[in-house]
Amino acid sequence: MGSRERLVETMSELMWERGYADTSPREVRQRSGVGQGSMYHHFPTKRDLALAALERNVADLLPAASELDGRGDPLARIEAYLMRSRDALKGCKVGRMTQDPQVREDPVLLAPVAAAFARVHASWVAALREAVAAGELRDDLDPERLAHTLMAVLQGGYVLAIAQQDPGPFDDARAGALDLLRAAAPPGRDDTTQTDRK
């Protein structure tokens, strides 16, 4: 791994751990083992390095969200994405950046965060529309609103877990969202009905 990649990876980790405002260039150099001259050769400012790290964090997030866009049963994909293994006490690499005042107030740093959430939202909406079209969810549901709700469940679950230093609230929030999705099945549709149709 070259010095540029080590700097980006280290900044990514530190921003996830403590945020942009509380990460100093000196800490990045110390943890990465990259000298000051090399650091400023690749990234003239801390902001330049932070932008590269944010883009990396977004790149880490999006492949996981692409699970929503796969083939097969849409509701099964939605459930698998909701319940996949996550480190609740570390939070979302991208979502945590919205809590950093220096990121929130800088349109350049906030742009990749906003773009990432827009892409994830689009994946949620597409999967939910498929679930409605397949008769797995009621057709009076609004996929746009429901997508925002499910994204809020995940992000809010992280906040609750971190606040209590316990992954339980995150797991409960996801399980509760899953309960609500199952309750939103059209009347008369249950596991027996689905089995009988096969």
From TrEMBL:
<keyword id="KW-0805">Transcription regulation</keyword>
<dbReference type="InterPro" id="IPR001647">
    <property type="entry name" value="HTH_TetR"/>
</dbReference>
<dbReference type="InterPro" id="IPR009057">
    <property type="entry name" value="Homeodomain-like_sf"/>
</dbReference>
<dbReference type="Pfam" id="PF00440">
    <property type="entry name" value="TetR_N"/>
</dbReference>
<feature type="DNA-binding region" description="H-T-H motif">
    <location>
        <begin position="24"/>
        <end position="43"/>
    </location>
</feature>
<keyword id="KW-0238">DNA-binding</keyword>
<dbReference type="InterPro" id="IPR011075">
    <property type="entry name" value="TetR_C"/>
</dbReference>
<feature type="domain" description="HTH tetR-type">
    <location>
        <begin position="1"/>
        <end position="61"/>
    </location>
</feature>
<dbReference type="InterPro" id="IPR036271">
    <property type="entry name" value="Tet_transcr_reg_TetR-rel_C_sf"/>
</dbReference>
<protein>
    <submittedName>
        <fullName>TetR/AcrR family transcriptional regulator</fullName>
    </submittedName>
</protein>
<keyword id="KW-0804">Transcription</keyword>
<dbReference type="GO" id="GO:0003677">
    <property type="term" value="F:DNA binding"/>
</dbReference>
<dbReference type="Pfam" id="PF16925">
    <property type="entry name" value="TetR_C_13"/>
</dbReference>
